[in-house]
Write a structure and sequence with these properties.
The complex is a heterodimer. By secondary structure, chain A is mostly helical. Chain A has 1 helix and no strands. Helices cover about 90% and strands about 0% of the residues of chain A. The chains are: A mainly alpha, B mainly alpha.
């Protein structure tokens, strides 16, 4: 039975890698989009002044 | 009050901003507790042995892979019929989440299949349908990124998504449709309590399933908000360029 644990560990590690990659990409894209938008809003305010 | 007011991007940003942290924390806590419970505080199965523990991530990943496809299809229909821009954005935001969870379901299923069935992969109706569904996810993501005009991209990828619904239905109901011809066993979670797994496995499984739903809500809102910000930024760049050209 103990010989089955490597399969269990491999399944959890594979899932963790896939989910971590998705979260990482999503959070980075979100931060970049927010920063871009804030920069553009500041530029527009500066232009309008 | 109409539900369609949430299709307004400003209203969507306000409501989703309030839900986002709650969904993220709920997902983290439920998946964390469910996984620890399933890995360390449940017994091995009398037939599957320790590999039954793979179920606590495989079942929610597969369930979400299929359900996210249905969410995308519904959002695409609403986008195509009612022309609500947020519908297309939600479908677009959901696709990478669905693709990632489909991949996780296929990989964990293969890892479970080797010690249990004696094979990593079998061209069984359920497995084949979910693999084709993964290709539809990838095709959908590719089509969105290949077309510059967001309205056209939403329409065309929405149609592609609707074509692929047949494989989502096949993935969900293959065991019921094909019966003995499938290697895959019936659903571990069902509204019919008689067919459910034993209570000792059911409780941690329920936690991870609800956790994966919360994870999807968190991710789809985060990604849809990113899409809205990117669209606003694009529109603002055009405005600024026009203003600079006029000055």
């Amino acid at each position: 039975v103990s010989g089955q644990w490597p399969y269990v560990i491999a399944a959890y590690v594979a899932t963790a890698v896939v989910i971590a990659a998705l979260v990482w990409i999503s959070v980075v894209q979100s931060r970049r989009a927010r920063r871009d938008l804030e920069g553009l809003e500041a530029r527009r305010r500066g232009d309008g002044a | 009050m109409s539900i369609w007011r949430y299709a307004n991007p400003a209203e969507f940003m306000r409501v989703s901003g309030a839900i986002l942290p709650f969904a993220g924390w709920t997902a983290g806590v439920l998946i964390g507790v469910g996984v620890i419970w399933g890995l360390f505080f449940t017994p091995p199965d009398y037939l599957q042995g320790e590999t039954v523990r793979i179920m606590y991530i495989h079942v929610p990943a597969a369930m979400m892979a299929i359900n996210i496809y249905f969410v995308m299809a519904l959002a695409s229909v609403i986008g195509i019929v009612r022309r609500h821009p947020v519908s297309f954005l939600v479908a677009k935001a959901a696709a990478p989440i669905g693709a990632a969870l489909t991949l996780a379901a296929i990989v964990t299923g293969a890892i479970w299949g080797q010690p249990t069935w004696g094979t990593w992969w079998e061209w069984d109706p359920k497995l084949t349908a979910i693999l084709i569904m993964l290709f539809f996810y990838l095709g959908y993501i590719g089509l969105w990124s290949a077309i510059d005009d967001p309205d056209k991209a939403g329409d065309l990828s929405g149609v592609l998504c609707l074509v692929g619904v047949v494989f989502a239905v096949m993935s969900r109901y293959a065991v019921e449709i094909f019966g003995d011809q499938t290697l895959h066993q019936p659903a571990s979670l069902s509204l019919d309590a008689e067919t459910n797994v034993d209570q000792v496995f059911y409780r941690p499984l329920l936690l991870t399933v609800v956790g994966f739903y919360a994870f999807f809500v968190w991710m789809v809102l985060l990604r849809a908000r990113t899409e809205i910000r990117q669209r606003r930024a694009r529109a603002m760049r055009v405005q600024l360029a026009a203003r600079e050209a006029a000055a």
